[in-house]
Design a protein that fits this description.
six-stranded mixed β-sheet; 28% helix; Rossmann fold; 7 helices; 6 strands; single chain; 250 residues; alpha/beta
Length: 250
């Protein structure tokens, strides 16, 4: 019997704690915030602090975030609880550029460019970009490249990555085998956690989604090397931390 080729070891994976930034100002007007640099709302600042409390006992090896203020301030809430953990801005974690509609209230933009929005909302389109903006395929490519960079820096580690909704929706649709046009179905809530086991795969990452849209409570049981705590800093099971105001309220 002929022996097959030797099995190569799997590339070292990391546990990525992917976090959509907390709630921003502008929700009342449904602002289309791609590169528009909105700050957190008062509710978002409370949410960021609660995220920090929830993650206080997690064995983070690094904290990475987008350069936009809403991601930076969300990462502040986590970093305060992990003062010795390396922290860095990664420019490729920024949100997709929405071009001519970036910063517009959604309904006003829809009335101004109805045909353009019909194309943007068509889930059968393989790709799309607003005029002057970034295509979804380009945004996804740079985002996955940024995650690959993070994984290579922290093989075997647990890493917090604070980023944006469109990027996470595109990545999650891709990782679950769905067309990218369905990205809105996979966009996680503000201030929620998505846990992904990721490993280097050329210029991008291979990924296995372990949990999606966590807003508190006990984390899932994962392999022992990652040692996620079953209780919060008080010794009690962690409570829900996401408190998003209803639409129309800041």
């Amino acid at each position: 019997m002929t022996a097959g080729p030797p099995r190569l070891p799997a590339p070292p994976s990391a546990l990525l704690v992917l976090i959509r930034h907390a709630v921003t100002v502008g929700r009342r007007d449904y602002l289309l915030a791609g590169r528009t640099d909105l700050p957190l709302s008062p509710a978002g600042r409370r949410q960021a602090r609660a995220l920090g409390r929830y993650l206080a006992d997690w064995p983070l090896a690094g904290i990475y975030h987008s350069p936009l203020r809403r991601a930076w301030a969300t990462a502040d809430g986590i970093a305060r609880r992990h003062p010795g953990v390396p922290r860095a801005v990664h420019p490729d974690l920024r949100e997709i550029d929405l071009g001519i509609v970036d910063g517009w209230p959604a309904f006003a933009a829809w009335e101004r460019w109805p045909a353009l929005f019909a194309e943007a909302l068509d889930p059968t389109r393989a790709d799309f970009a607003f005029p002057g903006g970034e295509s979804r395929s380009d945004a996804l490519r740079r985002f996955l490249g940024a995650l690959a960079d993070v994984v290579r820096r922290h093989p075997g580690g647990v890493v917090a990555v604070v980023t944006h909704g469109a990027l996470l929706g595109l990545a999650l649709a891709t990782w679950t085998g769905e067309p990218p046009g369905w990205w809105r179905r996979f966009q996680p809530p503000w201030g929620s956690l998505t846990l992904v086991e990721a490993w280097p795969d050329g210029p991008t990452v291979g990924a296995r989604v372990l949990a999606r849209g966590l807003t508190g409570g006990r984390p899932p049981r994962l392999r022992p090397a990652w040692r996620l705590p079953a209780a919060g800093p008080s010794g009690r099971p962690p409570r829900r931390f996401r408190r998003t105001p209803p639409p129309g309220r800041p």
